[in-house]
Specification:
The protein is an alpha+beta fold and 147 residues long. Helices cover 24% and strands 31% of the residues. It has 3 helices and 6 strands. It has a 6-stranded mixed β-sheet with strand order 1-2-3-4-5-6, sandwiched between helices. β5 and β6 form a beta hairpin. It is globular, with a radius of gyration of 14 Å.
């Protein structure tokens, strides 16, 4: 489930990035070093000028957006802890994508909001036009099962 949703994350960010060349979109475990922590988010977005020219194996500048997807090893509590770490290192907004409930939690220094299928994520001022519909993250999972 996690890998299918991760592809959704990369697709959403990549399509947006094609229309916004002033940004650099990282995916597939976007590697970065924040302080002493090595992180591998499912997706991340930086301002292009902050990462070019390449100089390191890992990007050492906090992204504007980091995206984490819950899976078997990491659920919402673990991802909330990661979000706190990201924010503490200067990331502006974190999306926590929760496949089990088909929700996305948007976390900023100002608080958090939870969004379900049928809603759109609120665009962050630093990422113009990036406010995807929640269901786009979960397309590969098929229709929700009746419980």
């Amino acid at each position: 489930m996690q890998q299918g949703v991760s592809v959704g994350v990369v697709t959403i960010l990549g399509q947006w990035g094609e229309e916004h060349p002033e940004f650099f979109v990282g995916g597939n475990e976007a590697g970065m070093i924040l302080g002493k922590d090595v992180r591998g988010a499912e997706g991340a977005v930086w301002r292009r000028e902050s990462v070019f020219p390449w100089s390191e194996r890992y990007i050492r500048v906090p992204p504007i957006l980091a995206v984490e997807v819950a899976g078997h090893e990491e659920g919402e509590p673990e991802l909330r802890e990661k979000a706190r770490s990201y924010l503490g290192h200067g990331v502006a907004v974190v999306w926590l994508v929760l496949p089990e409930t088909r929700e996305v939690l948007v976390v900023t220094a100002g608080g958090e909001t939870r969004h379900a299928v049928g809603e759109r994520l609120p665009p962050h001022p630093a990422l113009p036009g990036l406010g995807p519909a929640v269901e786009r993250f979960f397309r590969q999972l098929g229709p929700p099962s009746a419980s």
